[in-house]
Design brief:
The chain is an alpha/beta fold. The strands form four sheets. The chain has a five-stranded mixed sheet, sandwiched between helices. It has a four-stranded mixed sheet with strand order 8-13-12-11, sandwiched between helices. Strands 2-3 form a two-stranded antiparallel sheet. The protein is globular. It has ten helices and 13 strands. It folds into two domains: about 5-175, Peroxisomal Thiolase, Chain A, domain 1, CATH 3.40.47.10; about 185-325, 3-Layer(aba) Sandwich (Peroxisomal Thiolase, Chain A, domain 1), CATH 3.40.47.10. It binds acetyl coenzyme *A (ACO).
């Protein structure tokens, strides 16, 4: 039996209304616009309003993606939400989105891989379609990361923001996985983790350990070092798996943690700056939401065109990292 390839039929995204500049942050945190911009490229971020939950952001991104993909809720088989900041410890935030969409069939669950969450969720959705277990999957990355920040810790609180992005994955009736790298769809996904590095990036709480939510802790310099090495390796792995080379790439849509990491990855790939989709300057690091937010921006403003080769990649807590190649 020939496995069916999935393709991205549409995308959507949502940012909370409140935009917080570095200047505004520096009124309450011991930092400066100059420090944040020079180390990270971040100029502002969006912060969810009181009472605005991850599921609210996810729902807003979802309805925009469904509309863009001209897909009815009745056609969805599965909802996957990648998030590190669920509304509740359980049930899954995906089930809350399912309820808001008035969807009473199929299944909904969350995936937890921190900043790599969207790549993980995309991989799961793609594999459900390849295996013939689903035809249409809504994949969402959504975070209210501001809720797990220690606002007294200037080395982390300036780096993150809130938001959500979503894509609708569909089985491609015209193409099969055997159609080669020139046919549209998700060509491959590649996931990795190495649990030995837990202490480089983690939250110091949880239901089983402290019965609290906890706050983000990060050894920034070490994470940076691992990010540059791991991302370069997984990008080559994805290209090799499809007999493609670096010059074949049209767009890099990376997880948006730090402009210096993006520049370093692009340089290693021999890509020019204007081939990287950058949102970190306006969104900061929105964890699992950052790739679908960036992808949606570049699709809607016409940069990404049919037939082009797109590389998605991310690294985050775990450590986890991964990549996906997509023929648009
Ligand atoms: N404002 C002003 N000064 C600051 C701030 C701030 N917001 N934060 C730290 N500093 C100071 C430090 O106290 C330190 O001062 P000192 O030299 O007097 O001790 C100095 O700046 C340098 O700090 P470093 O941490 O060494 O700065 P670095 O150049 O490494 O940049 C950064 C820090 C931006 C965090 C960087 O290491 C980084 O981007 N790391 C990677 C983050 C990442 O990729 N995360 C991935 C995924 S995130 C996820 O999965 C949730």
């Amino acid at each position: 039996m020939m496995m069916q390839r999935s393709y991205i039929a549409g995308s959507g995204s949502y940012l909370p209304a409140r935009r917080v500049t570095n200047q505004e942050l520096s009124e309450t945190v011991d930092t400066t616009d100059e420090w944040i911009v020079s180390r990270t490229g971040i100029r502002s971020r969006h912060i969810a309003a009181d009472g605005e939950l991850t599921s609210d952001l996810a729902y807003e991104a979802a309805i925009r993606a469904l509309e863009h993909a001209q897909t009815d809720v009745d056609d969805l088989d599965l909802i996957i939400v990648a998030t590190t900041t669920p509304d509740q410890t359980f049930p899954a935030t995906a089930t809350k989105v399912q309820a808001r969409l008035n969807m009473r069939h199929g299944a909904a669950f969350d995936v937890q891989a921190v900043c790599s969450g969207f790549i993980y969720a995309l991989s799961v959705g793609d594999n459900f379609i390849r295996a013939g277990q689903a035809k249409t999957v809504l994949v969402i990355g959504a975070e209210t990361f501001s809720r797990i920040l220690d606002w007294e810790d200037r080395s982390t609180c300036v780096l993150f923001g809130d938001g959500a992005g979503a894509v609708v994955l569909k089985v491609d009736p015209e193409n099969s996985a055997g159609s080669g790298a020139n046919a549209r769809g998700i060509l491959s996904t590649h996931l990795h983790s190495d649990g030995r590095y837990n202490e480089l990036l983690y939250v110091d709480g949880g239901p089983s350990s402290t019965q609290t939510t906890g706050h983000v802790r990060m050894v920034g310099k070490e994470v940076f070092r691992h990010a540059v090495t791991n991302l370069a390796a997984v990008v080559d792995e994805a290209l090799d798996a499809n007999d493609l080379g670096r010059p074949d790439l049209n767009w890099l849509v990376p997880h948006q943690a730090n402009k210096r990491i993006l520049d370093s990855t692009a340089k290693k790939l021999g890509m020019s700056e204007d081939q990287i989709v950058v949102t970190v300057d306006r969104h900061a690091n929105t964890s699992a939401a950052s790739i679908p937010l960036a992808l949606d921006e570049a699709v809607k403003d016409g940069r990404i065109q049919a037939g082009q080769l797109i590389l998605l990649e991310a690294m985050g807590g775990g450590l986890t990292w991964g990549a996906s190649l997509v023929r648009w």
